[in-house]
Amino acid sequence: MGAGDDGREIVISVDAMGGDKGPAAVVAGLGLFMKDRADARILLHGDTATLTPLVAALPVKDRITIIHADDVVQMTDKPAHIVRTGKATSMWSALDSVRDGAAAACISCGNTGALMALSTMRLRRAVGVKRPAIACMWPSLNPSGFNILLDAGADLKADAPDLLNYAFMGASYARNGLNLEGPRVGLLNVGTEEHKGRAELREAHELLLQAQGAGGFTYVGFVEGGDIPSDKVDVIVTDGFTGNVALKTGEGTARLVGKMLRDMFGTNILSKLAAILAYGALKKFRHQMDPRRVNGGVFLGLNGTVVKSHGSSDATSFAAAISQAYDLARMGFTERVAARLATSASFTQGLEQSDDSADPADA
Amino acid sequence: MGAGDDGREIVISVDAMGGDKGPAAVVAGLGLFMKDRADARILLHGDTATLTPLVAALPVKDRITIIHADDVVQMTDKPAHIVRTGKATSMWSALDSVRDGAAAACISCGNTGALMALSTMRLRRAVGVKRPAIACMWPSLNPSGFNILLDAGADLKADAPDLLNYAFMGASYARNGLNLEGPRVGLLNVGTEEHKGRAELREAHELLLQAQGAGGFTYVGFVEGGDIPSDKVDVIVTDGFTGNVALKTGEGTARLVGKMLRDMFGTNILSKLAAILAYGALKKFRHQMDPRRVNGGVFLGLNGTVVKSHGSSDATSFAAAISQAYDLARMGFTERVAARLATSASFTQGLEQSDDSADPADA
């Protein structure tokens, strides 16, 4: 689908503040992103005095509207504190543009916990969702080059109905974000045998077997940590504690290997020469493993699309993340997920909720 | 410490059956391991008819005693089934050599779940231990090249007193297995802030702050998945579900990177030439990342040392794993851990046990 073919305008709400590299990196990323997307318009939330000169320097400045916000969410702010006192922040303001229908998606590189708490408060959970989730792309051996893992850390826990919802939401994301017709969904466990794992996993296993048709995915059963980057599965479902540990362990392992590789190519004159000869291939390799390409966790299970860009995003990685927000907005992703989630609920009706469930009053 | 300097004999009990590659790989591994260790003697458990010709071909055959066992634990056998019916298996027999005091350590490349269940049943838990753990070595940026992670999958859950015990046992293993005087212990969590994570983690955090002196380690606080291969910490403590997922995710990521590297060097004539030039450095790199070097999970918290070698162990990796068993046996590792665990108990006396605790009647 070519951008702008249908004459529609796609409006994205951007929190310009709160990233480690400041608003200059965000605005530079906007410039990269917008130059090939004539139908994109931006609502840019933050300090007007800071943003005005940055935006004025961009060729696409006419498609950017600055909306002033006095305050900024800091990386050290506790989510609960921001929910109580953050009304004047650029993050709050950016989310309210989606809440009010002025924008189709919101993006921020600020504090993840605060963004999830504010998103849940301002946009509300989608019908049937108790725990929203963060979905992230993971480099893999599949043709698209990526798998999707969720929850990557929105909530510490997930019971069986939550995991079922994650499967529905993750499969929707795979269809819309990776163009996969019938994505394969796996449930992360410590073994692939049916009798293994915690009670909520065995219960979720049964739910997924029944619900796969309605969810428009194929359930491949339990998968293990080693399958996350494999081509056996497209969507990996787990609770936010396990997902977050897995994500960071994968990143840490890739960093370790990268360091060993650099050491390797620096060993002696022959290996240095080899590094020069392999320059093109090495560049491609680095590109494949570049965490900036997979930048952007997508919040699922809310009445609106929210993308979290990495706190240390530079212009390139911010452009990648906002492209994701734009693609999902163009596809009417929020509405598509909501339609699927409505089906998911029918599989868990009458099912007992676990004792440790979050307060569902807000759902 | 040179092998055999003190004239002592180190007896290791070996389960010859049950690995994917069969007893030939185990016996070949024994040959590699024993040739430089004149003080090592082996009790080799399995089918006499199969083992006799294999052993007869080894120069070290005089130091190997075959002990016949009719039966073999299969990879597909459920642990509970083996505990009830596995008396005639080579695994059971190998463990009983340690139980009876005939050997100082036991090693097997069979079914992990069955080995843990049988080890717990035959050797019993050490005093004060409710949940034994599997500790594994993880390639890292530390000078030794390794960090220790536990529990890598013995039990799905761990409460605060379990995590405290893991810290004591892991620190002992770091002192004895990595020669670290005062190892640094970290608790795996989804953030490093004190208020983050599950209740049992915050409780364990407090216990570790108090107990670090008595445990002979430095507690560095919460660590994240990305820190597992780092030089910020030597021992990473977590529950068996999370540890198993992290371990397999790390292995999967390393495999993905390895595949991408191979593809990279095969891209074109220049990169192929580069691969030839970098041959020595690449070989060193492969050696560093070779999972066979870190083969061997050690079971901690039992009255005896048990090493689990990988199911697909070849001769090289089996030799590496049995060397670990030998080193720990020489050091009197079981007794040293037991002495530490006795101190650990004093920190959790009067502490409430969580509702989901395992049956401690067997402790």
TrEMBL record, chains A, B:
Primary localisation category: cytoplasm
Swiss-Prot/TrEMBL GO biological process terms: fatty acid biosynthetic process; phospholipid biosynthetic process
InterPro entries membership: FA_synthesis, Phospholipid_synth_PlsX-like
Entry's localization field: Cytoplasm
Record's keyword annotation contains Nucleotide-binding: no
Physiological role: Catalyzes the reversible formation of acyl-phosphate (acyl-PO(4)) from acyl-[acyl-carrier-protein] (acyl-ACP). This enzyme utilizes acyl-ACP as fatty acyl donor, but not acyl-CoA.
Protein name: Phosphate acyltransferase
Taxonomic lineage: Bacteria, Pseudomonadati, Pseudomonadota, Alphaproteobacteria, Rhodobacterales
